[in-house]
Predict the 3D structure of the following.
Amino acid sequence: MKQKINVGIIGLGTVGTGAFRILRENAELIRHRVGVPVEVSKIAVRDAGRDRGLAIPAGMLTTNPAQVIEDPNIDIVIELIGGYEPAREFILSAISRGKHVVTANKALLAVHGSEIYEAARRAGVTIGYEASVGGGIPVIKALKEALAANRILSIYGIINGTSNYILTKMTEEERSFPDVLAEAQRAGYAEADPTFDVGGIDTAHKLAILVNLAFGAHVDLKDIYTEGITSISPLDIDFGKVLGYKLKLLAIAKMHEGGQAEARVHPTMVPDDYPIAKVGGVYNAIQIVGNACDDIMLYGRGAGSMPTGSAVVADVMDIARQILIEPSRKLPAGDGMAQAAVKLQPMQSIVSLYYFRFMALDQPGVLAQISGILGRHRISIAQMIQRGRKQGGSVPLVIMTHKALERDIQTALVEIKSLACITEDPILIRVEGDEP
């Protein structure tokens, strides 16, 4: 039996620093729970001279990742540099040498996951990726283990803290998107280039991983409909409040009869009384519905040095326990991911409730024209709000629909946009919940 588990880390940024601190500060607790010490042997960084505020033993740092990957004494390699390359190359190289891997790299797994998981299966090693979705929230373990007996019916996730922070501030303080984004950047909640966060791309990466686990099949990232929050205005948030809804950037996945699934990321109006509507600030939440467990919601910090580092170290400890088990008693190697492709329902064929806001001239007959077009495309109006009187000017006209087909909605919008009375591009926001 091994006397200790040796770990190598590639990347000592925000998450790497958190993982290192936890491994050092909780070393005795980890030793007790694993059975042997779990020790960091080598750390590869870009700049070995940088002060990271950590007491790192002399000789532990290197600027050459190969010294981590090729060290025969290292059992587990932790990849925390992010991005596609050279992270992919490092992970595959570690796997080829029979090393287990832990990563927080959701973008890499969403795009190149199939290749990495297959390599791990062939090599008989394990990939730990709890930290790739939801920071310190144990959603990967929940889907792989605690909910394994369930057929997962749906997932609703707030899984990007930056976007949730911005929408929360816009809702509570009635401020514009650019204003709150600038504040989030100053506070460190948003990157200098926030495109992946506010454009929904980061959320789509994480949803691809969740769909793979929940539905037992691989999904191609490009097939996930993705829309961000950059066009959201305080006016639509305000109308949502009046109608009893909160606006959230949601990752949505549903499994339908016949084995077809839907996976989409977009701003969504959620009823005020739904638990996920109450999740504010930088917090994340994932609501899972299983056919046996019914409705479960996981909630917590979705990012940050220590929460995400906690998820990384949890994976290290799980793998360490497996290393210590006799080979004949080990669980199957790999990742828990299935490799068969799942057919995603085209966005045009989803059915949803919808919120429209039209800026229209305040003149007779406008509502009749708009409602006539909606009716011809089988779209039924559930609620309507018209605010303000500007004779000869533009006023907002808000319409909430009953359930309708996305294809019909998009066709009707094109026709409505061409009306002479419409002065701005209409706003469309999808709505989750029961019929109004």
In short: Residues 305-324 form the longest helix (20 residues). The chain has 14 helices and 17 strands.
